[in-house]
Amino acid sequence: MRNMRRGQIMAFALAFFMLPALSLMTSAQVPTVPSVEIDCDSNPVMNVHPSYYEPIDLTCVVRNPSSFEETISVDKEWEGNNVEMILSEDTFTLGADEEEEFTVTFSGPTKLSADTSYSFTLIAQVDSIGQVPYDWANANASYNGDFTVSTYGMVELEMSDKSTRTMVLDEARVLSFQFSNNGNDKDKIRVSIANEAELIESGFSFPLGSFVAEDVDSGSVSSLREISITAPSEVSKEVRVQVIIRAESNNDDNAEFSEISITIVIEKSSELSGLGGLDEMSTGDMKKYGAILGAGILGIFILVLALKVVGRRSAEVATPRTLELPDIEKESDVVDDLDEFDEFDDLFSDLDEEEDDLDSFLDDFE
Fold first, then answer.
1. Residue 25 banded pLDDT, cuts 50, 70, 90
2. Residue 13: what pLDDT?
3. pLDDT digit string (tens) for 53-76?
4. Nearest CA-CA partner of 152 in 45, 42, 249
């Protein structure tokens, strides 16, 4: 009797501990109702830059979590005006607990505005279980996402006068320019002197700053802007430099910049500029021009001397003389001859005096 009672107790205890395990086994064998799951990667962002555009793909996964084979269809809700949304596949036959990937491709024109944005929905629905049509409202799933466009920068620097500038020492010049925003969003475009350090080392300066910046709407042009540059205060030789003006986008670090290069020439200063740049003449040039100048002065002096002599002769000829005739004709001839010699003596005396003056002048010139 006691043994029977003990066996009943053991059977009851075994049944008590085995009941949860039996319950789990029974529930695992119960088939789940038809259903579907769908999920996708992060929201698509399309690059619409004219040089780098390509369609954007979104990878999605559809899954059958039920215990039955299912035929699943995927549909889309899309209202994009100028962007297409295309599914690589829209019907799937999946066994129990199977899944499959598909791709959603977005494509459209380049240069779309950066504020372009469209919402979309992917709806997955169980159409049949095996070969049996299935139309339960709760046998579906959906994914909601947003399509957007990335911002890109594209700038263009414009300058009407790109000619070489010749400057003098300490001269200030203004470099005028404009810039266009060819990107797809409003951009704070910056224009600067790309080789500022090199120019400062050469003695140039930028008293009003070496850059400007302006907010420019997409598709618009800036106002007329300026950068002032001042030449060095002194140079030992002619200086020829390139001033590189660069425009850059603030929206896009990867955007290409736009540049214009201007040549500036600084001529060496002339210490004798008032004399027509004699400091730049060679020694040979100095000798040549000195000889010409000396010859000219000498010629003028000789001309003046000749005029003075001729003037004296004319004055003496014009002065009336009283001639006393000697009693003897022979004596008169001798006197006339002596008078002529006296006139020659006076001429040579004048020439001697003028020669002394010429020697004195040449001594001073040397």
1. very low
2. 44
3. 999 999 999 999 999 999 999 999
4. 249
Is 343 in a helix, a strand, or coil? helix
Residue numbers of the domain that contains 233:
155-274
Where does the chain show beta strands of DSSP type E? 37-40, 45-46, 56-64, 70-78, 84-87, 91-94, 98-107, 117-129, 132-133, 140-149, 155-158, 165-167, 172-181, 187-193, 211-216, 225-230, 239-248, 258-266
Could you tell me if 69 and 171 lie in one domain? no
Distance CA(330)–CA(211), nearest Å, equals 109
% residues pLDDT > 70 (the chain): 68
160 and 239 inside one domain: yes
- Assess if residue 320 is contained within a domain: no
CA dihedral 24→30→35→41, nearest 10 degrees, is 30
- What's the rounded mean pLDDT across residues 249-257? 95
Helix, strand, or coil (residue 345): helix
State the total domains in the chain: 2
